[in-house]
Specification:
This protein is mainly alpha-helical and 75 residues long. The chain contains three helices and no strands. Helix content is 80%, strand content 0%. The longest helix is centred in the last third of the chain and has 23 residues.
């Protein structure tokens, strides 16, 4: 399991470096989202419960952050 976690972390870090900073704090929010999704999936594997709604809520929160940030910069 430790190797798998390390590999996941390496792949995410490698891909994450090319993500554009769409607004201040965006990359940080996105990184937190990725950590949360991985943790939710890990909990799902142990508890055998549905995580679709939990993941959708996490994604929605980051989307709303981006929307608010862009709206503030437009106004």
């Amino acid at each position: 399991m430790a190797y798998n976690n390390k590999k996941i972390r390496e792949v995410l870090q490698d891909q994450f470096k090319d993500v554009p900073e769409r607004c201040e704090g965006y990359k940080e929010k996105l990184a937190r989202l990725l950590v949360n999704v991985v943790n939710l999936e890990r909990a799902h594997a142990i508890a055998k419960r549905s995580v679709v709604k939990d993941i959708a809520n996490e994604v929605h929160e980051v989307g709303m952050f981006l929307h608010r940030s862009r709206s503030a910069s437009d106004g």
